[in-house]
From TrEMBL:
Domain Cytochrome oxidase subunit II copper A binding: residue ranges: 137-263
Membrane topology: Multi-pass membrane protein
Family to which this protein belongs: Belongs to the cytochrome c oxidase subunit 2 family.
Pfam families tied to this protein: COX2, COX2_TM
Top-level taxon of the source organism: Bacteria
GO process annotations (BP): ATP synthesis coupled electron transport
Alphabetical UniProt keywords: Copper, Electron transport, Membrane, Metal-binding, Respiratory chain, Translocase, Transmembrane, Transmembrane helix, Transport
Task of the protein: Subunits I and II form the functional core of the enzyme complex. Electrons originating in cytochrome c are transferred via heme a and Cu(A) to the binuclear center formed by heme a3 and Cu(B).
Biased composition (Polar residues): 287-308
Lyase listed as a keyword: no
PANTHER family cross-referenced by the UniProt entry: CYTOCHROME C OXIDASE SUBUNIT 2, CYTOCHROME C OXIDASE, SUBUNIT II
Protein name (database record): Cytochrome c oxidase subunit 2
Length: 308
């Protein structure tokens, strides 16, 4: 009886290992399919969107693949749990055979999680390295200058502090600043702040980075691949009017961008340059907030507070 039981254990472990390999094979099969289509079919599994840059696509693919892997592991574990509940349910008052340990099972339980974590770490490191990678010769360099409580975008003729600004856009309380950029080009952002810490964030880029005052400059690059207009915000609480720090990212074709930048260099305003390429001259994804406290609800609440 003992010999039979011992012989059955390796076979059971082999079957379980086979199920694990089948799950891994299913993951490889799914990775060969369209991850984007699979993600959309299930609402992106909580991920906001696929994004509008090449870097965002890689983060999206990593997220969807990780969730698929987690679901495969979860289904496998749930299956084992229910199988044990049914297979070893109580059938009488006699106790089942008591065993101290099962070496093949314990090896499987130890090795499998290590392999899963190692694979996830490997692909996470690859995507993170790619997202943070800087090229030697970016196609466009934009200096992002944050200040209470607006943005200034300077188009530069080179990298670093010694480069020259060839065109600039700055926002105001009445006009949302537009950051116009082309598709298909490597765009380097060099961030600096004039006062406190801010954070440059475009949700559709699936990426944000803090903007520090002083000599420390955060630098990153993106390659946009989808034309459109996308709201941008400050993602770091920076004072009273933090919520008013908005801008709009306008992604256009390279030809339109060249025309826009040429118009800016010739002295045109941002709105005039936008009209020159046939685009709406003002932001369409957001609008300036009322900073003057002149709304009727504000006046009424203050009248009541004053006891009038």
């Amino acid at each position: 009886m003992g010999a039979k039981s011992s012989a059955a254990r390796p076979r059971a472990a082999a079957r379980i290992a086979g199920l694990g390999l089948s799950g891994a094979g299913l993951l490889m099969l799914l990775s060969g399919c369209s991850i984007e289509g699979f993600g959309k079919a299930f609402g992106n599994f909580g991920w906001p969107s696929r994004g509008v840059s090449l870097q965002a696509h890689k983060m999206y693919d990593l997220w969807i693949a990780s969730v698929i892997a987690a679901l495969i592991v979860g289904i496998f574990v749930w299956g084992l749990i229910f199988w044990c509940i049914i297979r070893y349910r109580k059938r009488g008052d006699e106790l089942p055979v008591q065993t101290r340990f099962n070496m093949p099972m314990e090896v499987l339980y130890t090795v499998t999680p290590i392999l899963i974590v190692a694979v996830l770490f490997y692909y996470t490191a690859i995507v993170q390295t790619d997202v943070d990678k800087l090229s030697k010769n970016p196609d466009q360099v934009v200096e992002v200058v944050a200040f209470k409580w607006q943005w200034q975008f300077n188009y530069r003729d080179g990298m670093g502090k010694d480069a020259n600004t060839v065109a600039s856009t700055v926002g105001s309380a009445d006009v949302i600043p537009l950051l116009v950029l082309p598709t298909g080009e490597k765009i380097r952002f060099e961030e600096t702040s004039k006062d406190v810490i801010h954070s440059f964030w475009v949700p559709e880029m699936l990426f944000k980075r803090d903007v520090f005052p002083g000599s420390v400059r955060n630098v990153f690059e993106v390659t946009l691949d989808k034309e459109g207009r996308y709201v941008g915000r400050c993602a770091e609480l920076c004072g009273t009017y933090h919520a008013f720090m908005q801008f709009e990212l306008v992604v256009v074709s390279p030809d339109d961008f060249d025309k826009y930048l040429a118009a800016k260099k010739s002295g045109a305003t941002t709105q005039e340059a936008m009209i020159a390429i046939g685009k709406e001259p003002y932001a369409v994804t957001t609008e300036p907030l009322n900073t003057r406290r002149q709304s009727s609800s504000w006046n009424q609440s203050n009248t009541v507070a004053a006891g009038k």
